[in-house]
Amino acid sequence: MPFRIEDIKKGRRQRVEQGGKRTVIEEPGNRVIVQEKGQRATIRHDETDRLRRTSSSVRSERGRDGGNITIAVRPGGVEIFSEFDPSGRLKRRYRRGRDGHEMNLIDNRRFDRRDGPGLILNLRPPRVRIARQKYIVEYDRASDEDIYEALGAPPVERIDRGYSLDEIRYNPYLRDRMRRVDLDTVNFAFGEWDVSPSQYPRLARIARAINRIIDRRPDEIFLIEGHTDAVGSDIDNLTLSDRRAESVAIILAETFNVPPENLITQGYGEEFLKIPTFRPERANRRVAVRRITPLMARSR
User: How far is the C-alpha of 166 from the C-alpha of 175, rounded, in Å?
Assistant: First the structure.
């Protein structure tokens, strides 16, 4: 029987910090929701879970700054290093081949440690000069080439600088500088996040496009975004959306061999409704994919 949101709610632990200005909710599955007064809640999860599921072995070491380093050994002896600061923020992820060559995937070391609410940037919406169906690709109507083109395309506007992963996560106008693919053929039951095995084949085309791009450039990073409709509480929808994004990423990695280190997931709850309604709406219970590599800052 699949887990439902009611199971998660029973296992939550909540505390209030900073004199009532900050609420922290810890959930089963290593998820933490942070609600700052006057700000939208944000969610953080275990960034190494997919690696643990697809690696032959995983070990952890203490970092010099008191944080943690997780080393996952992938098939063929390739090692994936994920470095976290003491707060659990992902500082760096890189791949080390059997020959010792290292390839940076994510590098946030030169950025400060502000969390989600402190990372809002003063950006305007991008000027989109391409057809909407090419900017936001509806998966069920798109050809394989449409999907590949959208995921491999450059930003729709010039990027002034490289951004941290957290800046990309929490700034929609920044993310919107990249095209996206809406996986509208993958359906989620109300209050659930599992994808039924009968739906797995629907993800084959997006997996082929991602793998085709990674075969060309092995350091490409893709963001898997989770969304919900507006029924239910903000907090419940936030964790539902995050878990839906993770479910899709796990299927891409385990069933279609997309390298899990090249995927990042993030839930946004009901914040970005595709169809503006407070009623149950299947189209709003969705997952979207976009390539974010051109937005990212990296040390070479």
Answer: 11
Per the structure, the complete domain to which residue 60 belongs is given by 5-295
Q: Which two tokens stand for residue 247?
A: 């479910």
Structure tokens at 82: 């994920």
Alpha helices in 39-184 (DSSP H): 49-54, 132-135, 144-152, 165-170, 172-175
Helix (H) or strand (E) holding 211: helix 204-216
Write down the residue that tokens 């450039």 correspond to: 217
Give the rounded distance of the alpha carbon of 182 from its chain centre: 14
Structure tokens belonging to residue 253: 């990695």
Which contacts (CB < 8 Å, 24+ apart) does range 243-246 have? 243/29, 243/31, 243/193, 243/267, 244/188, 244/193, 244/285, 244/287, 245/287, 246/45, 246/49, 246/50, 246/193
Q: What CA–CA distances, in Å, run from 1 to 4, 133, 196, 272?
A: 9, 38, 11, 29
Per-residue tokens: 70: 């997780």
pTM over the 0.85 mark: yes
Tell whether 300 is covered by a domain.
no
Q: How many CB atoms lie within 10 A of CB 140?
A: 10
Q: For 76-115, write each residue's pLDDT tens digit.
A: 899 999 999 888 889 999 999 999 999 999 999 888 665 5
Q: Provide the number of structural domains found in the chain.
A: 1
Q: Is residue 144 part of a domain?
A: yes
Q: Give yes or no for residue 1 having a pLDDT over 50.
A: no
> Which of 120, 240, 224, 236 is closest to 182 using CA atoms?
224
CATH number at residue 131: 3.30.1330.60
For residue 194, is it within any domain? yes
